[in-house]
Amino acid sequence: MTRDFEPFLKKLHARRFDELQKQVYLSDAFLRSSFEPHMKYVLECMQPIPDRYSERLYHTSQRITDKLERDLSERTIEADFRYQGPRQTGTEVYLYGDIQVMVILPPTAETEAELAVRLLGSQIEALCAGSSLFRTVAYDQNAAVQVTTSKKPRSQIDILPCIWIDTKSYKDRSKEITRGIAEFDFVEDVRKSYLPFRNMARINRLDKRVKGNLKRLSRLLRSLQLDARESINLSSYELTCALYNMPEKRLRIEPRYILSLLPVISEYLDQLARYGMFRKVMSPSKKELIFGHDESKGGELLKLKSILDDTIIDLQDELRPLNKDLTNGFPYE
Question: Which of 11, 109, 152, 291 is buried most deeply by CB count within 10 Å?
Answer without folding.
Answer: 291
